[in-house]
Amino acid sequence: MVQVFKNNFNYDHDFKVVSLAYLNRYPNPYAKHVLSIDTIENFIDNDGNLHITKLMVKTGRLPSFIKPFLGSNLNSWIIEKTIINPHTSKLVTYSANIDHRRFIKVEEYITYRKLSDGVTNVNNKVLFSSNFIGFKQRIEEWSRNKFTSNIEKSKDGLSYVMNELKKLKT
């Protein structure tokens, strides 16, 4: 059974600040697990939407029950595809690991949308699926729980970048 995480919250910042912060969110003091990030493609389509594809390397700790198979630390390659529609003030992004998929596949879907002046809504959904025979449910549950416990750091990191952007503006 695939584990699912859903979350919906608001930032008290306008969409332009939130989307700019999202594109520049690394490095920040809350994301020490991000080892590298590269933009591999960007273009503006005929409708004026900005498309960006990034490749990241992240590291993380593994649960003790999996260490005999994979070791204690795991670097993972992540692909992220983002589309920003400046006309509707909407940013949609999809990210997923492109390695270690037998162990765990994590797919994250996030939508940032202007709710009102000065408020941006964030809606995210994350799917956790494993094909690791004998440990499937345990790995999926552990991954979901770990993600849930780290979501506040992710929010804090983006808030940090938004505040830094505001300092540059003044």
Automatic annotation (TrEMBL):
<protein>
    <submittedName>
        <fullName>Protein Ups1p, mitochondrial</fullName>
    </submittedName>
</protein>
